[in-house]
Specification:
Layout (H helix, E strand, L loop, with lengths): L1 H10 L3 E6 L5 E11 L3 E6 L4 E6 L3 E5 L3 H4 L4
Antiparallel strand pairs: 1-2, 1-5, 2-3, 3-4
Length: 74
């Protein structure tokens, strides 16, 4: 997962994440990673059109829309 987040950071490409908020609600977001630190990422959220901070522990999954085109599919 960290590798995909880093790829979004380097390429400034949107990535899809499924995120669980602290209250237990789950959302799917398109984001562009702006900063990665030890426990969180700072992103531009395309759903909300604003800066957000997501806890890494709360990201359930992530991926580019078409992983095969990026050469990241396993």
């Amino acid at each position: 997962m960290l590798r995909l987040l880093q790829e979004s950071y380097v390429s400034k490409s949107p990535i899809e994440v499924i995120y669980m908020a602290d209250n237990g609600s789950v959302t799917q977001r398109s984001i562009i990673v702006n900063e990665i630190n030890g426990k969180a990422i700072k992103v531009w959220c395309l759903l909300r059109n604003e800066k957000r901070t997501f806890k890494l522990d709360n990201i359930l999954s992530c991926g580019f829309k078409d992983m095969r085109k990026r050469g990241l599919a396993q």
